[in-house]
Amino acid sequence: MERTKVNLLGIELDNPVIPASGTFGYGREFAELYDINILGSFSFKGTTLHPRLGNPLPRIAEAPAGMLNAVGLQNPGVDRVISEELPNLAKIFHKPVMANVSGFSIEEYAETCKRLDTCEQVGWLEVNISCPNVHHGGMSFGTDPAQAAAVTKAVKAVTTKPVIMKLSPNVTDIAAIAKACADAGADGVSLINTLMGMRINLNTRRPVIANVTGGLSGPAVFPVALRMVYQVAKAVDIPVIGMGGVSSAEDVIEMMMAGATAVEIGAANLADPFACKRIIEDLPAVMDKYHINQLTDIIGGAL
Amino acid sequence: MKQTSYIILENKPLTINVFRMMLRGDTSPIIAPGQFINIQLDGLYLRRPISVCDVEGDRLTIIYKVVGRGTERLSRMAPGAALDCFSGLGNGYGLTCAGENPVLVGGGVGVPPLYLLAKKLLEQGKRVTVCLGFNTAEEIFYSDEFKALGCEVRVSTVDGSYGAKGFVTAVLPDKPSYYYACGPEPMLKAVFGALDCSGQLSFEARMGCGFGACMGCTCETLTGYKRICKDGPVMRKEELLWNAQR
User: Fold this and answer.
1) Which of A34, A121, A152, A202 would staple A184 via disulfide (CB 3.0–4.6 Å)?
2) A173: how many CB neighbours lie within 10 A of its CB?
3) Structure pTM?
4) ipTM of the modeled complex
């Protein structure tokens, strides 16, 4: 285990594998299948100030080597997350957890983060300024450097926990957004959220997803995600968490070579609920194959 | 739920686009009628959820309609091949409140899960009426199988080419003790409106994971948000939002 350890903003992880927000719920379904304490950490379901049902159905569509989703930030709201979900989570997961936060105004982001700041279990705040599936919020904060910086500043002002800004790939220059976040005081960035896409049902001649568009994830996006992680890692001095289509131990290593300190696994958990377990178990042998002694040795190796 | 491999014993068409697949393997994860399995298929990213029609020892039957690439691929699988599945998903139908003469109402490819349900209810000594709705006579399947179990079977077709003409609501019995329904949502809504007794309805959805993690199939009910894959697919009549709209 020593060989796979990484340090993410002052907290040591047994390995860099972190299930991505929205693909792991609050861990319960996976804890029925395996001991989720083998994970480095995990990022729980995106949390907003108020409860949200999310978007109408259908929310899901198949894509070549991936999937589209337009869940729309369904969650019980921050107060119930703190009073119900986190205590339940504490019974099955005994490591610091990443709190994923979304919002529809800068004040809302700050208020939600402020409330989560009081939770001992929360090791990091991952601030999602990149959800493509909600209107008047989410991604709009992540597509403009000034807005991204404003959210970063507002959140940093209300918490002492490390703040990781989760970035959208649906921009012209992701490095510029990352830089704006870093300059505004972000402790780290995570990327990429999903790429906006759509499908049409040939029988009904209507979009498959009720929201019309959805976020593309899965192996299809891996090279795009890797490229963006590389560009961002070159542009900023703060830690980068890489994600986007990661499905194997090899992908984890590739992401780390592109500059990622830790790696989030998203869609793979849905297609194969054992994906993270398999990746963690595969890591030592894959490291041997590529003559990697310590995972920390390869971070940013390709930069 | 459990990940398991099923060997295909048979994969044959029942109608022009409805297939029956017999599988062999560990059926222990399936604990209630109305549950489903989630099948991995080559070249497709997401698994495909298909309801369980019957379980007998180590044999499992599914019936599916070819509607897209997943089911099309499934229809071309040959006996002897193995299917990687998550088995025993969803809540399934509850049997305890059925009363003496429950009615089972199925529409099209919503019919299959009612078969195992009928068997279980008959084992408990219930008088079971089965109402099956199809579009045309050519699309009818499993009415003889329900008869062979000992159910009273009533069939309707939309075009009147077999049985009563119209929707399945045309053949519902007068005073059933309880109802169980599975089919397209308009049919479920019609059955909900037509029967006064209590009942359970099974819903269909495009799913992401199939085990409750992704919130890809959540619907709102009077008792909160429910994931169709994990908290359903079977909902109690009393918890449906349709009650508030009446």
Assistant:
1) A152
2) 11
3) 0.94
4) 0.91
